[in-house]
Amino acid sequence: MDALWYLRRLSRMGPREIGGRVVTAARVRAWRAELAAPVPPLPSPPPRFTATLPDGALATVPDAAAASLLATADRLMAGHAEYFGVERADMVAPDWSWDPKTGRRAPADRYAYDVPYRDEKAVGDIKQLWEPSRHQHLTVLAAAYALTGDDAYAHRVADHLKSWWAANPPMRGVHWISGIELGIRLLSWVWVRRLLAGWAGAADLFEHNPEAVHQIHAHQRWLAAFPSRGSSANNHVIAEDAGRLAAACAFDWFAESAQWRADALASLERQLRHNTFPSGINRELASEYHGLVLELGLAALAEAQHAGVAVPETAWLVLLRMSDALAAVVDEKLHPPRQGDGDDGYGLIVDGTATHRWASLLATGAAVFGPCDWWPQVQPADVRTPLLAALVGRRALAATRPAARPDHFADAGLTILRTPAADSTPELWCRLDGGPHGFGTIAAHAHADALSVELRCGGVDVLADPGCYCYHGEPAWRAYFRSTIGHNTLELDGTDQSGSGGPFLWVRHATSRVIVAHPDGHGLSRWVAEHDGYGRRGHPVTHRRTVELDARARELRIFDDVRSDGQHGCRLAFHFGPTVIVELDGARAALRWHDPAAPATTRTGVLALPDALHWQVYRGQHDPPMGWYSPGFGRREPAATLVGRGRTGEGTGSLRSVLRIDG
Fold it and tell me: What is the pLDDT of residue 652?
């Protein structure tokens, strides 16, 4: 990062955060001495691991879930895994510093804080390095051992852990830089040890192994010393607190354990409240991070509950509200909005790759809190749900839960319009964004997407949020996927609604407000919102958008108005899912796609566009990027995008777009 970035970043911090970072900087210098620290001997008497699963827990795992997990475990045993679209065939004995995407090796012999981890030329793609070292593939292998008793799975886990510990001593290399990585890794180690409880070599691998005990201690000590602070205290701090709480409960082996446990629980409870709107929506307004925080919170509090630690009811209430909010916003296929950043991050994995991530999370919420009558039907079909439920039991909380399915979350500015699914008529699901730009002063995981629209038909992306794709190393792609033109909204004068100061830094935030939110699943739903992102001092500009969903006509109507003292160049974008074929004829686009629920059925629609704009269709353009869809982090595929160019301003009238989905 250059000096200008550091100045911008500093401008988003308050005095308390700056003071805390000064303390951190001093510790970074002092901890260089850790490089020479020897592995201490085991405590006396040797530690014992007692945080085992309750009797009978494994017997409650559904057969289909076990089969899915074993299929993934066997692929890992053969050396194969995929991380962010990159296939690895070296997972029998991985090189923990090698990036298969770029072919580069990160330096493994340098002090962690001397490694320029954001520089892809120096270390490779840091996400490709960090993800396997979260050791979530080892929880899968350990679960395979627990379900089958096959020692081969346990031996592979032991080989990987011994290899990792030897290659990554404390404070050396890229795996000692980011707290979220240490926190998730600790949570994985807790579950690895728990799932290997029946293996004869488990104690020698963990509590009777000086190197393992040293690593577990060093991870917790690091997290206590280098917490995420202030404007950086987003999902990262949740992972840090969750990992150190779980470790301090399950690995209660050190003089500091009681204090670490108390500090982590207090911080986690505070940060869960801080990171969550009262409605239950995560404040980062990034759906994948809602899932990550909920998973981390459930796993950490389950650990505390199992250890007999008194967990404040306020912490459970946040997770209850998050579970209800997730149940409210998913479409008929149980997928949430594609809003904001996302990097395929999980808090705890003990399932096969075929497991439906969101169905699993809803099943866990239902098992722990009980579902409301309006929740979508979810049949437990995963491994994680019965195991977490065995640790927690049913939580009876003194809380008033929604009597009907919420469709408008005023504090988050999130509105869901939908029509009911019936027989051969699939649900129309529409997500509307009229909320804050993002979380905190830097809004790290926000996109410049105010007033954007998503529309799905039977769970198929029709008007799609293109996703996230990347964080580091590809600045043009990072800029595109979080830009205004990269979303289904209106861009003015070739600029984003909010101003970027770096890949995780916004220095100017558009302010949005919802004026009308009147969902009606059987009649005419109406939503009106506006934002001021294009205004400058003395020259206010307001973009107001009205959206109507007519359930009977199966029409989505969008009206865009710009209120300003002048005219503006504009681009209006409509992005489509990758399965949608778009044929543009003037200001009319014919749409068609296959319905995955009925492969022989072709769905169709027509989008009537504002004829005051000149329309063009893009698909898979590279320079500049246009016409792309990211199904997951590190992956992108061509998809149709319609862009209309023209001028708009006070007195030019509404831009009217009407999408009709054939029944």
Answer: 62
Buried b or exposed e, range 54-74, using 16+ CB within 10 angstroms: eeebbeebeeebbebbbebbe
Tokens found for residue 343: 């990097």
Average pLDDT, the chain: 95
In the chain, the amino acid numbered 144 is A
Spatial contact of 430 and 455, defined as CB atoms under 8 Å apart: yes
Structure confidence by residue, pLDDT tens digits, 59-91: 999 999 999 999 999 999 999 999 999 999 999
User: Which one, of 466, 359, 454, 441, lies nearest residue 414 by Cα?
Assistant: 454
Cα–Cα distance between 223 and 34 in angstroms, integer? 15
Using the predicted structure, report yes or no on whether residue 465 has a pLDDT greater than 80. yes
Residues 6+ apart with CB under 8 A from 17: 229, 230, 231
232 or 534, which is more confident?
A: 534
Measured CA distances, 172 to 99, 109, 169 (Å): 17, 6, 6
Predicted confidence at residue 566, as pLDDT, reads 86
- Looking at residue 5, its pLDDT comes to 63
> Does position 380 have pLDDT exceeding 80, yes or no?
no
Sheet containing strand 567-575, strands side by side: 490-492, 567-575, 640-649, 614-619
In contact, 361 and 330? CB cutoff 8 Å? no
Q: Which domains does the chain have, with CATH numbers?
A: 11-392 (1.50.10.100), 408-661 (2.70.98.70)
Q: Is 138 a residue whose pLDDT tops 70?
A: yes
Look at residue 288 and give its three-state secondary structure: helix
- Within 10 A of 583 (CB to CB), how many other CB atoms are there? 11
Cβ neighbours of residue 201 closer than 8 Å, sequence gap 6 or more: 154, 155, 158
Strands 542-550 and 524-531: antiparallel
State the Cα angle at 329 between 328 and 331, rounded to 5°: 110
Distances from the Cα of 89 to the Cα of 81, 102, 456, angstroms? 7, 15, 36
Distance CA 343, CA 601 (A): 33
Q: What are phi and psi of 574, to 5 degrees?
A: -130, 115
Q: How far is CA 118 from CA 25, 475, 582, in A?
A: 18, 12, 38
Predicted pLDDT of residue 650: 60
506, 425 in Cβ contact below 8 A? no
List the one residue out of 373, 53, 49 whose CA is nearest residue 212: 49
Tens digit of pLDDT for each residue in 559-574?
999 999 889 999 999 9
How many residues are present in the chain?
663
Burial of 308 (0-12, 13-18, 19+ CB in 10 A): exposed
**Tens-place pLDDT, residues 601-640:** 899 999 999 999 999 999 999 999 999 999 999 999 999 9
